[in-house]
Amino acid sequence: MAITDWPEDERPREKLLARGAATLTDAELLAIFLRVGVRGKSAVDLARELVARFDGLRGLFNATQAEFCGVNGLGPAKYAQLQAVLEMARRYLETTLGERDALSDPTSVRRFLNAKLRDLPHEVFAGLFLDNHHRVIRFVELAHGTLNAASVYPREVLKQALALNAGAVIFVHNHPTRPISITLDHAPSY
């Protein structure tokens, strides 16, 4: 049955407009993004299949282009759209956190750094440069490494801090073998 034949209050787009995005399931949100299904499947059916196949939205977002485009009805254009949406979300989060004194406690620091580093396949050593009020000036990847190591040059770290006139610096590195693990090497005292 086509989505247009569904009762209006069950259609994902209408449901979002009437009740808000938070009321939709992952599949319903994805269906709005997909806009159309494929022969024999509505956009909602295709979205449900994708959520199941990739074990949730996170798995779908982390899929390679080949994995994503391997699904009937999905191609490079839709993959590019998805990557653009993800990057816009990351930039929104970064801007939102940087606009106010969002890094006022270790939890907000961890949330910010998780968003920046959690999906990287290699180790990164980075600096989060803050002003005197702990607002983000800039996040800078100072060293790229392999799966389990990254070489850091103190001279480069110091140059960045001085160039940005940072009032505080948080050094961080990720552990790709533990996808959501972030170690804070130094955090300002609050």
Short description:
The chain has 8 helices and 4 strands; from the N terminus they run αααααααββαββ. The protein has 190 residues and is α+β, with helices and mostly antiparallel strands.
List the helices and strands and how they pair.
Elements: H1 12-19, H2 26-34, H3 43-53, H4 57-61, H5 65-69, H6 76-99, H7 106-117, E1 124-130, E2 136-144, H8 154-164, E3 168-174, E4 182-186
Antiparallel strand pairs: 1-2, 1-3, 3-4
Task: Please give a structural write-up.
The chain is of the alpha+beta class and 190 residues long. It has two domains: 3-91, DNA polymerase, domain 1; 101-186, 3-Layer(aba) Sandwich (Cytidine Deaminase, domain 2), CATH 3.40.140. It has eight helices and four strands, in the order αααααααββαββ. It has helices at residues 12-19, 26-34, 43-53, 57-61, 65-69, 76-99, 106-117, 154-164; strands at 124-130, 136-144, 168-174, 182-186. Strands 2-1-3-4 form a four-stranded antiparallel beta sheet. A hairpin with a 7-residue loop joins strand 3 and strand 4. Helix 2 (26-34) packs across helix 3 (43-53). The relative contact order is 0.09. The model is unreliable at 179-183 (pLDDT under 50).
Low-confidence stretches: 179-183
> What is the 3D form?
elongated
The total domain count is 2
Beta content comes to 5-15%
Number of strands: 4
Terminal CA distance reads 57 Å
Strand line-up across the major sheet: 2-1-3-4
Main β sheet profile: 4 strands, antiparallel
Quickly list its features:
190 residues; alpha+beta; DNA polymerase, domain 1; Cytidine Deaminase, domain 2; 2 domains; 8 helices; 45% helix
